[in-house]
Amino acid sequence: MDIPLLSLHDGNKIPLDDGNTDFDASLVKVTKTAIQKGFYHLDCSEMYGTEEEIGFAIKEANVPRDKLFITNKVAQGIRNLVASPEELADNTSRYLIHIPFFAKSEADFQRAWKSMEEMKRTGKVKSIGVSNYQRSDIEATLDGATVLPVINQIEYHPYLQRANQYIPWMRQKGIQVASFKGLTPAFRCPEGPLQEPLTRIAKAHNTTQAVVLLSWLIQNDVVAVTTTTRTERLDEYAQALNTKLTQEELHDISDVGSTYHFRTSWPDRFGKDDRS
Fold first, then answer.
1. Has 48 been annotated as catalytic?
2. With contact defined as beta carbons under 8 Å apart, do 210 and 183 qualify?
């Protein structure tokens, strides 16, 4: 499976689709299957508590390390950054600060980022970035930074396209965008206004709404992070690589999606119609 790559400003490249899996007893089996099917970008986190299983699946899959791109994220350990568990540490390609809520001041952001820069400098990880950061969080982080974040992994989908030109601003800084909860219009908010356009577009391409949404992300140069516990879904998601939406279809999804607002992650931290 030939997954397109997105260039990062530090010279590394990241697959635009990933094989992240949900968190149950069959995690090792599903992850191993995902790798063997060609999903070489795996998204992990300290918060998920799955690092040992992912590391074991990587070994079981018997795929050359240089084909894999492993994203790992730190949250609870942010004040005392250490390497990931041994099962995953040697495989980490990109390390992210998972959430910004630890910071009580701009200095907190800067101290945490200096630790991330040290991890990159010593070769523990290839690339460093952030997740769930707002513009003010990134601005505080950049003050005094010697290495820029390569990416910000955020909730991003047609119902949360981020206001105030946030995506273009990040890209101007050389920061790429990754999306989680990208399938929200199909699965978490099926009553929204995209139901008709997604159904129509999926029918035109003989595919599913999930594939259409993944294609919308990929064709907009956003890394699509998906989750599943079902191996059959991996084959479905892979269809997004060969599903090319027309410009009209891309604009239709964006335009209709922008008329509606739905946030799944930490909604209590944002106003009812805060689309930042």
1. yes
2. yes
